[in-house]
Amino acid sequence: MKATVLKSTGSWYELEAEDGSIYQGRLRGKLRLSELDVTNPVAVGDHVTIEVEEDQTASITGVEDRRNLILRKSVRQGKHVKHHIIAANLDLAIAVQSVAKPFPKPGFIDRFLVSCEAYDVPPAIVFNKKDLSKGKYEKNLTELTRIYSELNYRVLHTSTQDPDSIDQLSSLIKDKLVVLVGHSGVGKSSLINAIDPELNLKTAEVSKSSEKGKHTTTFARLHHLSNGARLVDTPGIREFGLVNIHKEELSLYFPEMKEKRESCKFYNCTHLHEPGCKVIEEVEAGLINPQRYESYLNILESL
Question: Which residue segments constitute the domains of the chain, with CATH numbers given?
Fold first, then answer.
């Protein structure tokens, strides 16, 4: 029998069979040992084969090839643990940032976009709490929107107090399998509740002292929305650590650098200090945004 993974708690999985039946399942032993470099060989959104036991629990006997995935460096680093799969087989991945409280993190957005480009996941960016966009916050929002819109990334401004913006977001995700990724407190669960109030997901206020959010989502969970979307709500992520990306290929995942690198003097140019680097020339001429180039350098150093 085939099923889709709705939720993963580490050892148990919530599974939806093709006929709509829901089962609690575990992995067969051999499957647990098949991928030692990930924390979760089975992820939300995976299509799996299952066998239903007499007690109506299920055993996951296989995982179908993934169309794509979005993953990050695991917070539990060990000898054999390298990364964590956030979700698989996605139609869209959305980086959710808030205009303020907490402030948007361009470095987080850029790492997210690199991961999407590398693993063939269509991305979008949502700046939430647009009702807070006043003064310096509004100026920052305008600049960030310009940067990413000019790179042809889809950018939305949302607020749970603005029904029109929620309608735009609802239209964007309609009938798609979507994951929301962002820091705690940016309002991911609140946005889902605004689109589909019947879900009534738990939310929490941002701390006034630290302006950081509190975790209200413990495990990644796929929700069926009334507009036909299947939406994965994820725990807040503080950092988006990249994995399996080599320094010499990083610029392939920056659209503004991808074509320019073909004109560099050296085929393996890292666009850091090499002579005859077309990317550096474009940055100096103002044709590549300096903030994005600085972000590229920061990511390059971390790889």
Answer: 2-64 (2.40.50.140), 86-233 (3.40.50.300), 247-302 (1.10.40.50)
**Burial (CB count within 10 angstroms: exposed 0-12, middle 13-18, buried 19+), residue 17:** middle
The token duo for 213 is: 């959010």
pLDDT tens sequence across 133-185: 888 899 999 999 999 999 999 999 999 999 999 999 999 999 999 999 998 88
Determine how many CB atoms are found less than 10 A away from the CB of residue 122: 15
Q: Between the CA atoms of 127, 205, 165 and 114, what dihedral angle is there, to the nearest 10 degrees?
A: 30
| DSSP symbol at 196 | -
Residue labelled with tokens 């990644």: 220
Q: Are 60 and 13 in contact (CB under 8 A)?
A: yes
- The answer to which of 87-96, 114-123, 197-206, 236-245 has the lowest mean pLDDT is 197-206
How many CA atoms lie less than 13 Å away from 110 in the CB half-sphere?
A: 21
User: Rounded to two decimals, what is the model's pTM?
Assistant: 0.89
Handedness of CA 112, 248, 271, 82 (dihedral sign): positive
State how far the Cα of 247 lies from the Cα of 50, in Å rounded to an integer. Answer: 39
Residue type, 301: E
DSSP 288: S
Within the chain, where are the H helices?
29-32, 106-118, 136-149, 163-173, 188-195, 255-258, 278-284, 290-302
Pair 159, 126: CB distance under 8 Å: no
Cβ count within 10 A of residue 218:
9
d(CA 144, CA 280): 22
Residues 6+ apart with CB under 8 A from 160: 166, 187, 190, 191, 193, 194
User: How distant is the alpha carbon of residue 24 from its chain centre?
Assistant: 26
d(CA 212, CA 230): 28
